């Protein structure tokens, strides 16, 4: 029905012949290879093409839908800007002052800093990555090079998918029961790192797998042809090429660890006065400390300033990590001769 | 001989690392079940799934919190899905080609923002704002839904975008060549072709909303009662666990683990559904572009 209407429209208007590609598809695929549809619409607007009612309806619906998609997108994208802007507006002044970042925390008086919390977040990330990256890469190598498509591979895939869906607060109370109480680690960096390692294992594994899969198959085949065993070929040829991708995944994971709080609150701790230097010591990552300020905040007169500053600092750290990860990924891709 | 044995050993070691996820999942399920047994034994299922929460009187009903979880999740999806789908269509069909990467990166940035930061923002800006507009306390289902919408947008957008991009371009070309408008092509060709991926995206977003804790905890109230309006304080399963685990013992503590078990089962059911919808493709979200 509508198709027929279009054909008529073109016939009635007596279209001028145009060289293919004159308007080009570069502006957007919808125009068709020679932008014929746009020309018809232009003709309709100018009156040189007579349009049927069906055509006019279709054209109107198209324009309305386009406007709707633009409106929804602008709303969604402005949310991003709004969120980042609001967090920084509330806390950037505090977050950038050295007295706050490097200062000692206060439990009762105002003017406290957050240096032990910053170090806690940093140590927690390092410890978790040290646990989760070897495991994740090992699992990824197994899944992409050795597992095949058997029942075992399906079981591992099921485990990873299910584990990635478990809410972080469930990991939190699991870590509390198993690592804090059962293994007797108490509230400590290690208990938190073990919990977070389990939480992040599926995503680390997935990103490592994608990086390994991106290595051309011919590399492995060439290595095997020279007499390498499978493991030698993987270790000396495939993994070195996949390292940048794995590193990108690890940096993004660090961002997730720094921002995690629900799994940390009942495994690591909420407030410390001193910088934690041992994995067996309690610590207070920034994210958990914001929660502490929110719940017990009334103890500190300027809890609002501290929490806002921590939120801004946390956001800056996470955004920087994401930026670093993506820039490295891009630089490496370029050096290796891939294009985006 | 040595080489063969080493090869055998390496393969076994790698298998062990791969089995850690299976073992981890089994442990999580085992301990959730084990810790909630006292609640099921001493309070009984009828008590646990009732709508009255009064630990002092031996009432451990979780219905209020289950309703809170479902209501906030539904609210977040209702607000977030149209925006996310609009954005996915924008990124694949409408946006000027050169700026698509930039906009994509904007959405990914949103995915990286820690939930505690979003919660803090909700607590300091959104809740006072709703309070002023509605004259109520400001916190409740509405505030939680808005925060959750912001959290599910990046998930749903990224996966729907990939699904739309996976539709062969020849489909759209054929449709356009027959004279269909762009909207007709989107509605009749591309959306139906990407249906499964989009559905999977929404399910994954739902999983994220159900499990979200910190962001909701700061804007939900809290109060252990059924909400009387969209702006009256209540609780969800996650926020209840978070706020009471620290100071509860005995059956009350065990009933919080029972809530964790319910959350776990909801999450696993969603993943099973998602694996079915997406035809056995891995359901673990990617972190790398």
List its traits.
heterodimer; A: 340 residues; mainly alpha; MetI-like fold; 2 domains; 12 helices; 71% helix; disordered N terminus; B: 289 residues; two-stranded antiparallel ribbon; 2 strands; 1% strand
What does the secondary structure layout of this molecule look like, with pairings?
The complex is a heterodimer of chains A (340) and B (289).
Chain A: H1 2-13, H2 36-46, H3 53-95, H4 98-101, H5 115-146, H6 151-165, H7 168-182, H8 189-213, H9 217-225, H10 230-259, H11 286-296, H12 303-335
Chain B: H1 2-43, H2 45-48, E1 53-54, E2 59-60, H3 63-94, H4 100-112, H5 115-134, H6 141-165, H7 169-177, H8 182-193, H9 195-211, H10 214-217, H11 237-244, H12 250-277
Antiparallel strand pairs in B: 1-2
Report on this structure.
The complex is a heterodimer of chains A (340) and B (289). Chain A is built from 12 helices and no strands. Chain A is mainly α and 340 residues long. Chain A has 2 domains: 2-71, no CATH class; 100-335, MetI-like fold. Chain B is mainly α. Chain B has one domain: Orthogonal Bundle (MetI-like fold). Helices cover 74% and strands 1% of the residues of chain B. Chain B has helices at residues 2-43, 45-48, 63-94, 100-112, 115-134, 141-165, 169-177, 182-193, 195-211, 214-217, 237-244, 250-277, and strands at residues 53-54, 59-60. In chain B, strands 1-2 form a two-stranded antiparallel ribbon. Chain B is globular, with a radius of gyration of 23 Å. Chain B starts with a helix and ends in a 12-residue tail after the last helix. At the A-B interface, helix 1, helix 3, helix 5, helix 6 and helix 7 of A face helix 1, helix 3, helix 4, helix 5 and helix 6 of B.
